[in-house]
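cache lookup: miss for this entity combination. No prior model stored, computing from scratch. Input as submitted by user K.M.:
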Amino acid sequence: MQIGLDHADQLIARGRAAADELGLRAVFAVLDTGANMVAFARMDRAWLASSELAVAKARTSVKFQAPSEALNAPLQLGQPVAHFDHLNDGLLLMGGGLPILDDEDRLIGGIGVSGGTPEQDAEIARAALS
Amino acid sequence: MQIGLDHADQLIARGRAAADELGLRAVFAVLDTGANMVAFARMDRAWLASSELAVAKARTSVKFQAPSEALNAPLQLGQPVAHFDHLNDGLLLMGGGLPILDDEDRLIGGIGVSGGTPEQDAEIARAALS
Amino acid sequence: MQIGLDHADQLIARGRAAADELGLRAVFAVLDTGANMVAFARMDRAWLASSELAVAKARTSVKFQAPSEALNAPLQLGQPVAHFDHLNDGLLLMGGGLPILDDEDRLIGGIGVSGGTPEQDAEIARAALS
Amino acid sequence: MQIGLDHADQLIARGRAAADELGLRAVFAVLDTGANMVAFARMDRAWLASSELAVAKARTSVKFQAPSEALNAPLQLGQPVAHFDHLNDGLLLMGGGLPILDDEDRLIGGIGVSGGTPEQDAEIARAALS
C-alpha cells in the first residue's frame, strides 16, 4: 500500500495549522514507500533551505522506517564516530521526519518537516500525523 | 512578487479537476520565480516519470518566462538540431509548462503538468491558470 | 505489491540463459515500483557501460509502466524533436526494458537488460519474463 | 583477477542464509576491484536505506583493501575528528564491508552488507566469505 494524494494533503494541512500555531513558516514533504514524492508545500517566506531539509527528513524516515533522528547515535569518547547521513541520497538524522503507517502498522510513506528547531519540526510532524 | 502557497494550491486543484475530466492521472509542480518548488502533487497511480517531467516543464516556463514548448524549434533537414534542454538543470521543451503572471503580467512563478500527451498536458496547465 | 528478491533472481537466471544462447554478455537490473534496485547481475566481461544502461532501461519501464522504447517518438520533419531521456534521473528510451506485471496486470517492478543491440536486449528481457 | 558473477552469487547466497539465521533483512552488494557493481540483492522488506549503505561499505573495502570500519579512528578529546567518508564517492567507515581475496591473498573485489547493527553486518559479511 502507498499513501494517496488526498491523505498526503490532509497531513500537510494539519501540519500547516500546527506550524501556524507555533508562529513558524515550514516546508512539508510527503513521500511514498519508494521514497518518491507525493506532495510538497512550502509556506510563504519559509527558508529556502527548508525545502531540501524537509525532503531529506521524509526520505530518512521512509528508508529506515523510523523517526529521522532515531539513527543518530550519541558521540562516545574512545568510540568511532558512527555517521552515514552524508551519503549521496540525502539522509538527515534530525528531528522532523516520521514514517507514515496504515492501521496495521505497515509503512505507507513518510513525512518531513523543516522550519524551526528539530524539536519543533518533530512536534509539527507528530501533529500532522495525529 | 512571488506566488504564494494558497495560490499554488488553487492552481493544482483546478488542474486536478481538468485531469480528472480527461481521465488522466497527472503530476503538478508549481515553482516560484527563482525556480524553487512551492507546491507539488502526484495523483494516485500517475506515472512515476511524470514527477520529474512536470518539474522540468515548470522550470522551463519560469526560466524562459514562456510556455515550455515555445523554444522547441521544428526539425529541418540541412539544419542543425537546435536543442539545449539536456543541460544539467533539467529543462524540457514540451507542452505542459506555463509561466504564472500576476494581474499586471509580471512573472510570479511557473506551473508544470505531466500525465498525458504534451497537448493534453498543455490543456490541463491552461485550465489550471484559467 | 512489490516484486520479491526470489522472483527477481528467477528473472535474471532466465535472462542469463537467453544471453548465453545469443553469445552475449549482458547486465541485468530489476527494480521495484518505486524504481529502487532489488537485484543486479553483471555477466563476466560484459561492457562496464552496460551497467548504467540496464538500470536506466529498468527505471524507464517502471516510471512509464511500458517497454523502455515505447516513448521514443520517430523524428518528423517540421515537428519539434520530442525527447526527454536526458533528464537527471536517467531514463533511456531504447529496447531492453520491460515492466513486470503480476497476474492481474498490475505493475510490481521493471527489468532492464543491456549487452547487445536494443533488439537483442529486448529479446533477452522478454525471455526473462516468459 | 576479478571476482566473477557466479562467485558473487555464492557469497550473497551464504550471506542471505546468515541474515536469515539472525532474523535480519539485509542488502548485499558485491563490487569488483574497480569498485563497479557485479551483483546486488535486497532481501524482501529490508530498509531501503540499506541499499546505499551496503554499496558504500563494499566500495570502502575495495578502495582501502580493508574492512570498512578499519579506517574509522576512535573519537579523542583534544584531537580533531579524522573523517573523510563524506566524500562524493560514498565511503562508509562502519562494519559490514570486507575485501574479497583470492587464494593468494590478492584483491578480487569487495562485499558490503547492511541490515542490522554494524557488528551484525560484519558478522554476516564474514559468514558470506567463510
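stored under new cache key. The interface with chain D takes residues 33-35, 60, 62-65, 75-84, 86-89, 91 of chain A (CB under 8 Å).
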